[in-house]
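Progress report, Aim 2. The chain analyzed during this reporting quarter is listed below.
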Amino acid sequence: MIEARGQGGQVQFDGQHVTITRRGFLARATVGKGEKRFHISQISSVQWKPAGPFVNGFIAFSAAGGNERRSKFGSQTSSAAQDENSVLFMRGKQQAAFEELRAAVEAAIAAHHGRGPAAPAPAASTADELAKLAALRDQGVISDTEFQQQKQRLLGQ
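Predicted structure tokens for the chain:
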């Protein structure tokens, strides 16, 4: 479980779900208290703005089919503060925690959509290999002697 605490909210990622939780006065004054949860399949993108020396950064999650509005020039962070799918953070420890969270969520999105690191093909079982050899023997591709030799090799005899 990865958790990052920001200004007016925290984000948790368990490998399958992103949960944004808001508590306290700042949450009530901006977006409202409560919890919002996304399954990784619902997230179409992750918007990121690093914190600067005088301005907070933010992470924002876009859901497929969501109704997003574009920020005006110079007001991207203040718009994110009003967005229920965003959490603001400051430089330092908060930003580092959100960078880790962002990397994990983006990797999970890529893996979910088949763009992640290729998983090794599962090894065929001994029974599967024997069935393939038997089919080749029955089709006349290999002889019965070759079938017996390969069978003994597979069975470790």
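Strands lie at 2-6, 9-13, 17-22, 34-39, 43-49, 57-63, 86-89. Residues 93-112 form the longest helix (20 residues). These observations will guide the mutagenesis work planned for the next reporting period.
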